[in-house]
Design goal:
Number of helices: 2
Structural class: mainly alpha
Strand content: under 5%
Distance between the termini: 62 Å
Largest sheet: none
Helix content: over 70%
Order of helices and strands: HH
Length: about 45
């Protein structure tokens, strides 16, 4: 067992952090896509 496994900085679940990151990135690209569609519709 290495020293990093003994002294863990945080015991939070990695799935929660991964899910939050995915939602943020997906929301960003969905927003960009929506803005592009609205601009395309108006022009």
């Amino acid at each position: 067992m290495n020293e990093f496994e003994k002294e863990v900085q945080t015991k939070r679940n990695d799935f929660i952090d991964s899910a939050v990151g995915f939602v943020v990135v997906f929301g960003f690209f969905a927003t960009i896509f929506t803005i592009a569609q609205v601009i395309d519709l108006l022009i």
